[in-house]
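Table 4 source record.
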Amino acid sequence: MASARASVNRSDPQWGSRRIPLPLQGRGTSFNPPNRFEPIELEPCDDDAPTPDPELTASNRSGGPKTLYFRDLSRSIIVFNDSPDIGFDASINPYRGCEHGCAYCYARPYHEYLGLSAGLDFESKIFCKLNADKLLRAELSSRSWQPRVLALCGVTDAYQPVERRLGLTRACLGVLAEFRNPVGIVTKNHLVTRDIDLLQELSRFHAAAVHISLTTLNNDLASRMEPRASAPMRRLEAIRRLADAAVPVGVLIAPVIPGLTDHELPSLLRAAADAGARWAGTISLRLPGAVQTVFLRWLEEHYPQRRNKIIHQIQSMHEGRLNDPRFHNRFRTTGALAGQINDLFHTMRQKLHLACRAPTLSVEHFRVPGGQPGLFD
């Protein structure tokens, strides 16, 4: 059935009589926007739905539709990029899609390449690379591999809920520890503390850094905006446990949402510093592709009275747009409000003696297990 999307116009005198959709409990979005690559949008019945893997699919959690899990049959695990805006050029992703369901997640459009939607599909249809560790071992053992820092993950959270059961991320970390290949992790899940033993082993060779993503200290806002991620206090506890274990850990205040979370910057940085964070970074919200549709709908469902203000402030930071896709501009912000947010962040960061970036990781100790030992092995 062809799709027709109606925009919400608050100046419309009939607006007050329109039905505002109710949000789905436990989900970051309540709908599936059309896939930009598909000329026709279908409303599938149960018989037309993809068949999940029965061994992977867990019982339904409370709230929203059931999460389905599928086997990902990828033949490689290391993905390269040449973007000048991203701080890494190689990453590994044991999962596609993310059950955390963050309403603002920039990775949502990647699900469109699978013929799915960036909306509810992204957080309820998860693809799992069950042989991720074997693929990683083979690629690190290849003569063509040039040791470099790997990001874990580049597009989805490696510690989303299903990781507790499948352990794909831990298996990959085990391989990285064997090879002593450096890894940088970004996560908003306390589950990363499960792997402190492997992170400590990598840290012995200056080969590990963990960034804990923190957006708000408001539990109610977090439960609406990041419904299945760890609560803010649990993320701070993760920073504390990693710091106590001598694993390099910092905080990433991202995304900063003007009109919604920007006022929390001082308290977020102070809480992270008190927990043991060694550095801090930040990124302001941008809304690429279908993320714009998902996030604006989320605002309509949860904060309708603040929707227009938030939209206008986002636009004021991106030269009148909600996203600037140009290289060298995607993560930059301009304007008076952007300047105020950046000044506040950097002033607080310096006051709290937080570094501006993670320590440089080393490839010096990389080895291929079972190969010819190095001079200091």
